[in-house]
Design brief:
It is built from 10 helices and 4 strands, in the order H-H-E-H-H-E-H-H-H-H-E-H-E-H. The chain is an alpha+beta fold. The chain folds into 2 domains: 146 residues, NADH Oxidase (3-Layer(aba) Sandwich), CATH 3.40.109; 73 residues, no CATH class. The protein has a 4-stranded antiparallel β-sheet with strand order 1-2-4-3, with helices on both faces. Helix 2 crosses helix 8 and helix 3 runs antiparallel to helix 9.
Length: 242
């Protein structure tokens, strides 16, 4: 029986050691990825990919690239969350195609004001924000947007580094969906940032523009899998009601 959302969140821990004898059902893990891609994503661009590693030889290579961490060494499977900011143009076009199909293929003059706004968002605004050339255009846009911001509220995060952060935030939200989904069915995970990301990209055959968001070890927790009790700073230090 699956856990409730609250139960799954409470159950989820960063598990460092997984049981050697407990295998995972790859189909169930795949379903958790299907849950992951339902996460909110900036401008619905979905600039992410998930690489589900089950091959034993590849797992050994990944363990080395993850600096030999126990969470990788004992994992039965690995999930690599990859950011594909370089695909913004294709993903924007996919949204345009979806909108046109939803609205019904018709002359541009017949679109409603709301429909025209939605299409213009992907046809004009997204290219304005995401297109850059060696970082230089981003700084020009940044200066221009800051100037406009002196007179009215405006979106200011338009540099290449800003858009990388946006893409990684969306990928992080999807990764959390995945880990909570795994916890709900009794599977455990451990998100890892400590890794040689260049080696991982080579192992997975990823292009230059792809970036590793995190590697998630997957398995069933061993008795010594959690290194200590959960610690969080007092709720009052992070919650501010205004």
């Amino acid at each position: 029986m699956e856990k409730t959302v609250t139960e799954a969140i409470g159950h989820r821990r960063s598990v460092r050691v997984f049981k050697a004898e407990e295998e995972l059902d790859s189909k169930k893990v795949e379903q958790c990825v299907r849950n992951a891609i339902l996460a909110p994503t900036s401008s619905n661009l979905q600039l992410w990919e998930f690489y589900h590693v089950t091959d034993k030889t590849t797992l050994k290579k990944m363990t080395k690239a993850c600096l030999g961490q126990n969470a990788a060494k004992t994992a039965k499977q690995l999930m690599v969350v990859v950011v594909r900011k370089d695909l913004w143009n294709k993903r924007a076009q996919a949204n345009i195609d979806f909108l046109k199909k939803t609205y019904g293929h018709k002359p541009a003059s017949e679109y409603t004001k709301r429909e025209k706004f939605a299409l213009a968002y992907y046809q004009k605004l997204i290219p304005t924000v995401y297109f850059d050339f060696l970082g230089f255009l981003g700084w020009i846009k940044y200066a221009a947007f800051q100037l406009i911001g002196l007179f009215k509220p405006i979106y200011r995060q338009v540099r290449t580094s800003d858009m990388r952060i946006v893409a990684h935030k969306s990928a992080g939200l999807a990764a959390q969906n995945f880990m909570i989904s795994m916890a709900a069915i009794g599977y455990d995970t451990c998100p890892m940032e400590g890794s040689d990301t260049l080696r991982i990209k080579k192992i997975l055959g990823l292009p230059w523009g792809a970036e590793i968001n995190m590697v998630i070890g997957c398995g069933v927790r061993a008795e010594n899998g959690i290194y200590g009790p959960r610690f969080r700073v007092p709720f009052e230090t992070v919650y501010h009601k205004i």
